[in-house]
Amino acid sequence: MIWIWAGFILFVLALLALDLGVFHRAAHVVSMREALGWSAVWIAFGLAFMVFVYFGYEDHWLGLGAVPDAVDGRINDGASAALKYLTGYLVEKSLSVDNVFVIATLFGALAVPAIYQHRVLFWGILGALLMRGVMIAIGANLIGRYHWVLYIFGSLLLVTAAKMLVSREHGDPSQGAFVRWARRLFPIADGFHGERFFVRNGSGRGKLMLTPLALALVLVEATDVIFAVDSIPAIFAITADPFLVFTSNVFAILGLRSLYFALAGLVARFRYLKVSLAVILAIVGLKMLMAEPLQAALGSALNLYLLVLVLVVLAGGVLASLRTRAAD
Fold first, then answer.
1. pTM of the model
2. Integer Cα distance of 23 and 29 in angstroms
3. Domain locations along the chain
4. Which of the residues 198, 227, 234, 313 has an alpha carbon 20 to 30 A from that of 191?
5. Are 304 and 82 in contact, with CB atoms under 8 Å apart?
6. H or E, element range at 210
7. Sign, CA torsion 94/98/104/106
8. pLDDT tens digit sequence for 158-180
9. How far apart, in Å, are the Cα atoms of 63 and each of 77, 249, 251, 265?
């Protein structure tokens, strides 16, 4: 099993190295066309990996699917593993859209030049992958030991969904307590210094200072931790298999940069998208709290119904937004 994990991590690192070292080596403003193209590439990678999941779990390569899934108590075969992966990927991908709202607000508040935004998002997502890996390992271990943790996660998702419905706007992250604390603790340089995250005050061995670009990076990492508190419990409603949880999270996050550049200027047009995300969180939370009766009623088709329901809710939010905009 360790070789599957090692191979996947090396594969992801190779993709990231190609992304930053080859395709985005020179800083530039990412156009809408380029962002849409890269979004298609990352989505293609995410969907293609489902084929690997199917055959890997069907034939139990190197121990994949060798133990029962703690969520439903069943051994994952190829079909069930692929369905859980796809549902988890879709849920995580849709929830990452809300992260785009916050990142757009953050970059606007800090006046981060468009030419440097890709670099911040690249390192921010790399840090997010490491943090989510730790959180997933802890969550999977807790669920494996204490099944009742799922009820806590389900309740948390319902509370988060209610807060999303009540709160209409995101606050300005650059004015939060975290930023005030960071400014007191670390000296912040005036103005941007190219792509650098650190500069020295004066010449030679002057005082090391954070640049506003570094502050933006720290805030991107902090916001991802906050969103991970919502999104990781959401996928644990679908599966507790660590490999399925981690891989679906990784592919959803890898496309977040291109998704940001594709949607940052359009998010305001989809006024009902946030409502759709809140409904999805509520559905997933209810599925966690009512897993046993739903499993008894729907059997192995439960995750298929969940996948279809998530797709319908997302499509409904987009269509309602477009119809309202056309009416305006």
1. 0.83
2. 13
3. 2-327
4. 227
5. no
6. strand 208-210
7. negative
8. 888 888 787 655 555 555 555 66
9. 12, 21, 22, 44
